[in-house]
Design goal:
Largest sheet: 6 strands, antiparallel
Strand content: 25-35%
Radius of gyration: 22 Å
Structural class: mainly beta
Distance between the termini: 38 Å
Number of strands: 28
Helix content: under 10%
Number of helices: 3
Shape: globular
């Protein structure tokens, strides 16, 4: 974030305001071909955008997480995270000028954490499908959750290397109930544990950094699977890496691919949850009845369900308290997407405090790299014309990096790629939300006020000067 000093000082003179609900400010449609620091190749460079977003208050840094890559687990892809910058108007909260500042690849024991599905399927190995990210305020390391395990790793923010592996609760591991053998790559043979591609989708951390909270995307195989509507939040002790509790979260519905895509901590017991179905503008998605909503939840009073089968007859437990809708992400749309809602709203983060005491709330989409593939694993760029009533229905597929030899997605016949077709962009929406609406929000390791006025270097000088005076 880069504040304009004149605007900041003017904004500091404004009185605090209270809004009735988060208000949409503006949005960005980021070109689908945007490269990261490794280039622009779709399998090593093209940004997959925002499977999650996190704002590091202490360092004034934004992090945007890409997932396992464009191959859906079938292609070699070194997983990574992007540190990015935004210009933010400190008064209005309007965002602009998205830029990649750093690309950090993940490694484990010297080898890449790879998007390829586990092989053999019974061992997780270095297979990794990153979906949630936070910064541990106690040491600055990244915590990143994944769908294959489901897993949770602590990762060095400078090198990208795993420094701690958290212990996945046994009841979450995808497995055959009788033999106990896991299949981390698919649901085949599994009767219990998380569903494939439905692992730890959302991740949050308490303001003091003592606990991390990871949420499954949807119900486990033995708790309703695709027909289930209750999934689990797992509370981890960051010091030991062990799970200390599990809580039952009631989703809005089952079906339509309904699932949780993001979890954001307001404090140590209250959170924002982003739920979405699989409708909207996307690679292969149905357009009608897109439904993407944010709710506020509270763990206070919820039962620890670590040892409870959530859909067992007579099972008695208290679910997580859930508010009425906090934010409807479908209400505001961008002209660049034909004023249609994107399918994959997956990132959500509370950003910096604005001049009037409100906060920036940032939401982002996963665009699947704007790529599809056939049964043989051959990849194709997918181009959309967003002025059409159903952009995917009229989309065009072209061989990777080419604009000729293209075909209509609908019937495979030859198509000419005209100038009004573009790759699916990544989307960011900026919302302004009052401190009152966030309630008892506590940011992890808040930035001292002096940083906003003098910068980190000047603050360090002030601290050093103070120490010298005390010593004298």
């Amino acid at each position: 974030m880069r504040f304009t000093p004149t605007l900041l000082m003017a904004g500091l003179l404004l009185a605090d305001t209270v809004s009735a609900a988060p208000t949409f400010v503006n949005g960005l449609a980021i070109p689908g071909a945007t490269p990261d620091q490794f280039g622009s190749s779709v399998n090593d460079g093209r940004v997959g955008f925002f499977s999650d977003i996190y704002y590091d208050t202490n360092r004034n840094e934004w992090w945007g997480l890409s997932d396992r890559g464009p191959g859906g687990g079938s292609l070699n892809y070194e997983t990574r995270v992007q540190r990015f910058t935004l210009d933010i108007n400190p008064v209005s909260g309007a965002i602009s000028n998205f830029q990649i500042a750093q690309t950090l690849k993940f490694t484990k024991n010297g080898s890449a954490l790879n998007g390829l599905a586990p092989n053999p399927t019974s061992a997780l190995g270095n297979a990794f499908d990153p979906e949630g990210i936070v910064v541990n305020p106690k040491n600055g390391n990244l915590l990143v959750s994944d769908e294959y395990g489901p897993s949770l790793y602590e990762i060095d923010r400078n090198s990208g290397a795993v420094v701690k592996t958290y212990t996945t609760p046994a009841n979450l591991i995808p497995r055959n109930a009788a033999s106990g053998v896991a299949n981390y790559a698919a649901d085949s043979g599994n009767e219990a544990g998380k569903r494939t591609n439905r692992g730890f989708e959302g991740l949050a951390i308490s303001p003091d950094g003592k606990y991390a909270f990871a949420i499954l995307q949807s119900a486990m195989l033995d708790e309703g699977a695709g027909n289930g509507s209750v999934n689990r939040i797992v509370k981890f002790d960051t010091a030991t890496g062990e799970a200390v509790a599990q809580y039952a979260y009631q989703m809005k519905r089952s079906g339509q691919g309904q699932g949780v895509s993001a979890l954001v901590a307001l404090n140590d017991h209250e959170f924002l949850v982003l739920e979405r179905n699989n409708r909207g503008v996307g690679v292969g998605a149905e357009l009608a009845t897109a439904d993407k909503e944010v709710y506020k939840i509270d763990l206070t009073g919820a039962t620890d369900v670590s040892g409870i089968d959530l859909d067992a007859a007579g099972a008695a437990y208290t679910k997580v308290a859930k508010s009425a809708q906090f934010l409807d992400l479908d209400v505001n749309t961008l002209a660049e997407l034909g004023n249609k809602s994107p399918e994959k709203w997956e990132g959500l983060a509370i950003g910096p405090k604005l001049a009037d005491g409100s906060y920036l709330l940032l939401a982002g989409t996963d665009n699947d790299y704007s790529v599809t593939q056939n049964a043989g694993g051959t990849q194709f760029d997918v181009y959309f014309r967003f002025s059409d009533a159903d952009p995917y229905a009229s989309s065009i597929q072209c061989p990777l990096g080419q604009t000729d030899a293209c075909v209509w997605t609908a019937n495979g016949t030859g198509a000419t790629l005209s100038a009004d077709y573009t790759l699916l962009p990544g989307v960011l929406h900026a919302y302004k939300v009052s401190a009152a609406d966030l309630g008892n929000y506590a940011a992890p390791v808040p930035v001292p006020a002096a940083v906003w006025l003098f910068g980190t270097g000047a603050l360090a000088t002030l601290r050093l000067s103070a120490k010298r005076k005390l010593a004298a």
